[in-house]
Specification:
globular; 682 residues; 5-stranded antiparallel beta sheet; 7-stranded parallel beta sheet
Length: 682
């Protein structure tokens, strides 16, 4: 195998506020697939992940959980995170914790170095603070009075703090981004950072806190703890042996700068602005690339325990197995748009792609080899034209996958691999081994056909290995095929003649019954809801014991008559219309397949709405009530034949129907039962 040099890949370190859901787990699986692929492709890979364990939110969560200290709490959660990463068969080389002693010491050294060279100064901060994101915001940065990152509540905060002079390095960073187009991917993330943060001008960044204690102490001013993001971001260098005094390890000298920081799109600002500026101040090179991947949404909505729509990796594994879950999250995530996970889609992918396309292919090939050839396959040289097409598809697959992986288009790489398996299935239909097996004179042709299939599948298994390692290993074992280096995959015929396949092949994937899966999923959801409610009760009790219980929420005044329901609304009557006038309006059910905020508008969302076989673009003034992520996947009622018009310069080809209450709150009108996109509303 050719040595292609070093490759250092990291994930964001998981925040220890609770158990990661499948959307969080997606990132570690994605990073693992890339790391495994690079290793197989000849790179010397170092793969780091870990847990982020400091901050005000952790301090509060520890109290809610009834732990004796924040350290006890993060020990438990970090073990849970590590357990999930191991369950998902991830091959990380280092799991760093920000409570690790060597990390703590280096963060203190880094903070002092910044202070000594004049990058940090003491002042006081007054602004709006989001506890969930551990971040301050100005009034102008808020969206509808809420956190621009998570959409949660913010509160006024004022305290003494140290500040980092961000503007000192801003121009240097802007130049780097402009001259290194690959630095921030996808391009939309780069544009967002440039236009929303860097070009308008950076404010100095608060890098210490005094209002809580669970953090790394500033060793020369013990009233302060280091801001959690300065602490967390430095893990990428402390984990491989960086030393602020100039005594960095050989590991650091070998692997830094990182080749890829893989992170969620919600923390792109911290990684593409704060982190590079910190590195400039340290005099260290910037990472080569930062990829802000999209979210995995549950039925079109961001996962939330309070919504009861959270799915965890271990629950999925209990129903489908590790490799099918890996396949699903990798295959269903587009390069730059959010992916969607539903139980129905999981079953569909499992049955169609895994059970039918791949599992059935392997099982049929082995069964026919045993039935007709005693399990022994060999190339007898009896060729036909159809063989050439199969071999061309198989031997070109590596180059296609390589091109997709170079662009981090992992879902597309998987599609290329499964195109190989689909071509093998087609080859079986074209050559009809069951017909050849009835004619003794065609036994050599049959042997060649089955050899071609075993060789093709073994090449496909080699390419599949980074994504579904357990499945790839099972295929190799059942075919008795040797493990293939990537630099041999363009050569057809490396399988030794006389290879004997397994006499008793194991079914790789048994088809799933949707009804059975939905019943089990309902049980999982019911248990999660009960556990969440119990944890909320426990948290309230523990907060009260600590004297930190929040004031009870003010109850809304009941409507007249003592009912808790909202009072009915009367609106002025409009002129009556004829049946013909009503009949001229066309209402249909639409499915929102994509949604984005309209630039330079605080009110408008632009949705791509599937209506039958068409997709219409509809602009709606509902941004205050729905996020773009919440919109995707919704079935809505649409006035289809409204004359197109431009809103804020964006074409709108219809209208989404909403209800409005007395306070002006809007709610989308949705069908009571699941109806197909395009169904007429009459």
């Amino acid at each position: 195998m050719q040595n292609k040099g070093k490759y250092y890949i990291t994930t964001a370190i998981a925040y220890t506020s609770g158990k990661p859901h499948i959307g969080n787990s997606y990132e570690i699986v994605l990073a693992d697939a890339i790391a495994r692929y690079k290793r197989r492709d000849g790179f010397d890979v170092f793969f780091q992940t870990g847990s982020d364990e400091h901050g005000q939110k952790i301090e509060t969560r520890a109290i809610e959980a009834g732990c004796s200290s924040p350290k006890e709490f993060v020990d438990q959660v970090s073990d849970t995170i590590k357990g999930l990463w191991n369950l998902m068969d991830t091959s990380y080389d280092k799991f760093i914790r920000t409570t690790d002693e060597d990390h703590v010491k280096q963060v203190q050294k880094i903070f002092k170095k910044f202070y000594d060279q004049g990058d940090i100064y003491k002042g006081s901060y007054k602004g709006m603070y989001c506890t969930e994101c551990e971040a301050f915001y100005t009034e102008s940065q808020l969206v509808d009075g809420k956190c621009p990152e998570c959409g949660g509540p913010v509160h006024p905060a004022e305290e003494e703090a140290y500040f980092f002079k961000m503007s000192k390095y801003a121009d240097k960073l802007i130049e780097h981004i402009n001259t290194h187009p690959e630095f921030i991917q996808p391009v939309a993330r780069k544009n967002e950072m440039m236009n929303n943060f860097l070009l308008p001008g950076l404010q100095d960044l608060c890098v210490s806190r005094t209002s809580f204690k669970w953090g790394i102490p500033v060793d020369f001013d013990d009233k302060h703890v280091v801001y959690v993001w300065l602490d967390a971001l430095t893990n990428y260098i402390t984990g491989i042996g960086y030393d602020a005094d100039g005594n960095s390890s050989d590991l650091y000298k070998k692997y830094w700068p990182a080749d890829l920081h893989l992170i969620g799109k919600d923390i792109i600002r911290f990684h593409t602005i704060y982190w590079p500026i910190f590195l400039y101040a340290l005099g260290e090179p910037l990472p080569k690339q930062i990829f802000g991947h999209p979210w995995l949404l549950q039925g079109g909505e961001k996962m939330s325990k309070s919504k009861g729509n959270v799915i965890y990796a271990d629950d999925l594994v209990s129903l489908f197995g590790v490799d099918p879950v890996r396949y699903f999250v990798l295959h269903e995530m587009p390069f730059d748009n959010d992916g969607v996970i539903t139980w129905e889609l999981l079953v569909e992918r499992f049955n169609s792609d895994l059970a039918n396309t791949l599992g059935n292919l392997v099982n049929r090939t082995i069964a026919m080899s045993n039935k007709y050839l005693g399990g022994v396959v060999a190339d007898k040289g009896v060729k036909e034209a159809v063989d050439d097409d199969l071999k061309a598809v198989v031997t070109s697959c590596y180059d296609k996958v390589e091109a997709k992986m170079d662009e981090l288009r992992v879902a597309d790489a998987l599609t290329e691999i499964f195109a190989l398996f689909k071509r093998c299935n087609k080859y079986i239909d074209e050559t009809e081994p069951w017909i050849l097996g009835k004619d003794e004179a065609k036994k050599d042709r049959l042997s060649t056909v089955l050899y071609n299939l075993v060789e093709s599948i073994s090449i496909g298994a080699a390419l599949l290995d980074p994504f579904m390692p357990e499945t790839a290993q099972k295929i190799r074992e059942q075919l008795s095929a040797p493990e293939r280096d990537f630099d041999t995959l363009s050569e057809f015929g490396k399988l030794p003649n006389g290879t004997k396949v397994s006499e008793a092949p194991e079914m790789l994937f048994a088809r799933k019954d949707l009804k059975d899966v939905l019943e089990k999923a309902a049980e999982i959801t019911k248990k999660q809801k009960a556990d969440f409610e119990e944890s909320q009760k426990k948290a309230a009790i523990n907060l009260a014991k600590a004297g930190l219980a929040p004031a009870p929420a003010k109850e809304a005044a009941p409507a007249e008559g003592g009912s808790d329901e909202k009072a009915p609304i009367d609106i002025p009557a409009k002129d009556e219309i004829s049946f013909d006038q009503f009949g001229a309006m066309q209402f249909q059910v639409g499915e929102i397949i994509k949604c984005e905020a309209v630039e330079n508008s605080k009110k408008l969302l632009c949705s791509q709405v599937k209506i039958g076989s068409q997709v219409k673009q509809i602009v709606s003034g509902i941004r205050k009530f729905y996020s773009p992520e919440e919109m995707v996947g919704k079935k809505v009622m649409v006035l289809v034949n409204l004359k197109p018009a431009k809103l804020a310069g964006v074409l709108s080809e219809g209208m989404l129907l909403c209800a409005e209450d007395a306070e002006g709150n809007l709610a989308l009108m949705t069908p009571e039962k699941d109806m197909p996109a395009g169904a007429e509303i009459c």
